[in-house]
Amino acid sequence: MPDIVLIGGGVIGLSIAYELATRGASVRVLDQGPFGQESSWAGAGMITPGNPLGAKSPETRLRAESFVLWPDWAARLREESGIDTGFSRCGGIELSPDRSASNIAAIAAQFQSEGVRAELIDSRELRTLEPNLTPEHGAGVHLPDYCQVRNPRLLKALLAACVTRGVEFSAGSPAIGFEHSSSRVTAVRSPTETISARQFVVCSGAWSQSVLAQVGCSIQVAPVRGQIVLLEALPLPTRRILEVGKRYIVPRADGRLLIGSTEEHVGFEKRNTAEAIAELIGFGGELIPSLKTARFERCWSGLRPGSPTGLPYLGRVPNSDNLFVAAGHFRAGLMLSPITAVLLRRLLMGETSNLTLSDLLLAP
Ligand SMILES: Cc1cc2nc3c(=O)[nH]c(=O)nc-3n(C[C@H](O)[C@H](O)[C@H](O)COP(=O)(O)OP(=O)(O)OC[C@H]3O[C@@H](n4cnc5c(N)ncnc54)[C@H](O)[C@@H]3O)c2cc1C
Questions:
Q1: HEC states along 305-346?
Q2: Does the beta carbon of 149 lie inside 6 Å of ligand 1?
C-alpha cells in the first residue's frame, strides 16, 4: 500500500510526487488520461520574478517563494533525469495594452515595491532593447529576471525523476469515488481497482471540483480555455518575453515563438477557433511586424484550472483527516509548481516550516 496517492498527474501532481519521493515517501499517481498532457503541457512556461523580501500579499508571496526555488529545482531535475527543462533567465518586457504611461508606471512601481528588479524604460530605450518591435509602443517595464521553462520538457523530466525515485504511475485510471471510515478516506476507486493509502491529494487541475464533489467538498475550480499559437521565426526577432496585458510572446531558444493566449469560459472544450487564432496572430504581427511572414507551425489550447481569486486551493479538505487539495492554479501553475510541491510535502509529512506561509494555505 502506498503512503500517498495523488489524483492527477499534471505539473502539480508530478511535482508533489517528486518532492515527496525525495523524502522517502512511497507515492502512486493516478491520471484519467496520459500524464502531463493537459494544461501543464499546453502552457507557455513563463515564470514571473518575485522577491520574498518584499512580497506581502498571498499572490506575491507564493510567486516569490516559488521563484527562488526554481534554479535549484531545474538543476536537480536535470541531474536526476538527464533532461534539460530549458529553464532560463531570458528577461522580459511588460507593455501597456492601452499604451498609457500611467499604467506602465504602476506596473513598474508594483514590481519595485516587491523588491523585483524592474526598470521603467522610455520609447528610445525600448527601441534599443527590442529593435524589431513596432515603433508605436511608447514605454515599457524591463524585467531582467523574467524566466521561462520548456514545460513539455519539465513534465518529461519530472516523470523520469519520479520513476527513478520509485513513484508508481497508473495512466487511464480516473478517480471515480472514495471509501471512508469516519473522517478518514481509506481508499480511492478507479474503474479497475480500489487503492488504499494513508493520505490522498486531489490535484486534478480543472477537474478538481468534480473529484472533490465525490466527498461532498465544494470548491470553485472551473476550466478556462487558453488558446496559443506556435510560429517559427528565424532569426528570432526577440529573445525576451513580451507581455501586453493578457497577451504575450514567448521566444524559445530553438527559433520558435509562442503567441498567447485567450481566456474563455466554454467548459471542457479544447477546440481551437478561427477567430481566436486569427486574433493572436494579428496581435503578434502588430507587436513585431516581421512576424506577419513567420512560418505558422501549429496551435493548441489547454484548460486552466480557474479559481475565483486566481490563487490555488492548498490545504487539508475540511472535515477530513487525510485528504488534501492542491488545485486551481489558473494562469500560474507552472510558475508555482515548486512551492506547491514544498508546501504539500510539509503538510503531508507534518513538518514545521521555517517560512511563515500558513496564511497562504487557502483551505476550501
Ligand atoms: C495557454 C496556456 C498558457 C499558460 N501559460 C502559463 C505560464 O506561462 N506560466 C504558468 O505558470 N502557467 C501557465 N498556464 C497555467 C498552467 O498551465 C496551469 O496552471 C497548470 O498546468 C495547472 O496544473 P495542474 O497539474 O493543476 O493541471 P493539469 O495539467 O490540467 O493536470 C491535471 C491532471 O489531472 C488529471 N485528472 C483530472 N481528473 C482526474 C480524475 N478524476 N482522476 C485522475 N486524474 C484526473 C488530468 O487528466 C490531468 O492530467 C497556462 C495555461 C494555458 C492553458
A1: EECCCCCCEEEECCCCCCEEEEECCHHHCCCCHHHHHHHHHH
A2: no
